[in-house]
Amino acid sequence: xxxxxxxxxxxxxxxxxxxxxxxxxxxxxxxxxxxTGEQLHLRESRGNLTMPAADAAxxxxxxxxxxxxxFCAEIQRLESVSVQWGxxxxxxxxxxxxxxxxxxxxxxxxxxxFDAGSISEGQALTVSSEEPIEGLYNVPLVLRVxxxxxxxSAAAPLMNxxxxxxxxxxxxxxxxxxxxxxxxxxxxxxxxxxxxxxWEFAAVGFVLLAxxxxxxxxxxxxxxxxxxxxxxxxxxxxxFLIRQLxxxxxxxKYKRSVLGMFWSFLNPLLTMLVQYFVFSTIFKNDVPNxxxxxxxxxxxxxxxTEACGMALSSIVGNAxxxxxxxxxxxxxxxxxxxxxxxxxxxxxxxxxxxCVITGxxxxxxxxxxxxxFACVIVFSLGFGMLLSASMVFFRDTQFxxxxxxxxxxxxxxVFYPETILTGNFKIVLQVNPLYHFLKNTRxxxxxxxxxxxxxxxxxxxxxxxTLVVGALVFHKxxxxxxxxx
Length: 485
What we know:
Layout: H1 2-36, E1 42-44, E2 56-57, E3 66-71, E4 77-86, E5 95-102, E6 108-115, E7 124-134, E8 141-147, E9 156-160, E10 170-173, E11 176-178, E12 181-182, E13 184-191, H2 193-196, H3 198-221, H4 227-237, H5 239-253, H6 262-282, H7 290-312, H8 314-317, H9 319-322, H10 331-357, H11 369-393, H12 397-410, H13 425-430, H14 433-447, H15 453-477
Antiparallel strand pairs: 1-13, 2-9, 3-8, 3-10, 4-7, 4-9, 4-13, 5-6, 5-8, 9-12, 10-11
Helix pairs in contact: 1-3, 5-10, 6-7, 6-10, 7-10, 7-11, 7-12, 7-14, 10-11, 11-14, 11-15, 14-15
């Protein structure tokens, strides 16, 4: 009778957990939709045309001279076209006109005039549309520039004489073909297919979640073990002990320290100040708002190294408890990571202060940075479980981890811009999980926009894959821990 009552209570708890999961899923889906804004549906076009380097003037744009550049762009929503100008380093006069024309019917799509006297050497003038123009994907277009200036006081559009012209790219001056290409660029946005079908994907996700929970429910009803359910039950059963271990680990870190937990606030700030002095004065860089850029990287990377470093010794360091008291062993690395999460939350305060002081304009997308911090936490837990299991059998893991941490720091753009890495080094960034978490956190906070929807899925898969691998390795080896402690 008592066993039946326990079983019924477990199913009641399971119902509450499942209802909580569904409610959390619905809340996250709605919040994500409103926080991402138009970045959910649109992205910077991958067909944007970049401006070639100038090495000559196309022609002095006097009255009666017309320069035309034909081209096609794989841009779904064309927004603007820019042209680079030269002034012959003299004061000019007159009016310069730029217009974009559809080649097939001669329709003027964009047009704007500029004062030639206000143009500076190397300046790029931009003609744009109030609303993005659709229907121009791979459509032949003509960029036409002309002026009413007099000889000796006329500006000149710049060109690149060595640029190889593609089939649809042709430069002409007064109707005569010319070699090279005008120094121009075209930019716009493309639709994101996944974003356009966001609610359909959300519905599919809801169905898949329901199927997963249904399978778990069925297995539990049949008396079959479910590691996920057992982990949740264990978390509830040992929640008091978990709180005590987290509190112990956090307090031990600052034991007999004068400033105590204030170091969690001070440490990222001092690290940022030192690195800021070195890399903004001794080693120059062109990163906008470098202080905010730096402290975001410092806070995230410091958390990762601290969480993994503490999880690494979680089994060996609790040998006396493990050999005397029964408790699921994965709780030990979990509590170490949780204590680092407490430290992370405190570290976010100086990060926000630096961002405010340096003039970061917070947008609603900044809230999405929490998602990438959550991915780092999950990733750190999975990696920490791997390290803790390895440490039991191979004590040199702690020394190898110190070397790996140093290497990992230098291959992650914490204090340098990723643009300095070229060629094969870019591959290192692409396979570096921390790079993706850090890059997208900065996009949300510093750029004030949301990354593409696919990025959220990629980061989640990286974090979950690491957690699953770490949990499996830990589970397979945990029964032999007592033999090596």
